[in-house]
UniProtKB/TrEMBL annotation:
Keywords for this protein: Isomerase, tRNA processing
Gene: truA
Catalytic activity: uridine(38/39/40) in tRNA = pseudouridine(38/39/40) in tRNA
Entry-linked HAMAP family: TruA (MF_00171)
UniProt name for this protein: tRNA pseudouridine synthase A
Amino acid sequence: MRYKAVVSYDGTNYSGYQKQINDVSIQGAIEKAFRLMTQIDIPTFASSRTDKGVHALYQVLHFDADMDIPQERWVEGLNKRLPGDIRIKSVKKVNDDFHARHSSKSKTYIYKVAKKPSSAFTCNYEVYERGFDINLVKEDMKAIVGTHDFTAFSPNKEGKPPVKTIYSFDYKETKTHYIFKIHGNSFLRYMVRSIMGNILAIGTGKKPVGHIKTLLETKERTLTAKTAPACGLYLYHIYYK
């Protein structure tokens, strides 16, 4: 039987989602919990391989298991064996052709920019840039929306197709943060953090207004600003049918 699980996690203490031989990963911790619960090795397949320090509010994975266990028992049993910064939110049976990554239609990420310097208790979950002016970035945010070649926004060592469609890129302002939200059909590695790095640079006057359009037109990665820190980034939602 194939199961779909929704997971949330704080990525601060992990090398990233994907399992690695010599580092502590989210996937490694989850598969260890499966092994402790069932006494067998159960491989998992995730929708997104988030990087070191990136968080997730809604990560999706699938796994196959020849055992008919109710959702609540999967959730309870796995969470008992997971560290507190990784939580299984739900588990349900799905069709055998469901694939956490290949079946996804689009993804949404959010990025948190603080309005004041971070404290010892918030520094792993936001980014602060002194002098950031939201009014400087509004036009550049509009330029991101649509179908573009995002070569300038990723090293793309995997050689994946660089043309992606961004459905929306907006922000919400609270008393303490600017929370940016970007929704697209898929993303290159580091693409969202690179976009946000350029937004932060424009908002602080390090890059000129209109810089995003220049990057999209020239596809020149050497012109891009520094990639934004991972700690401000959250995988927000994965959309399927």
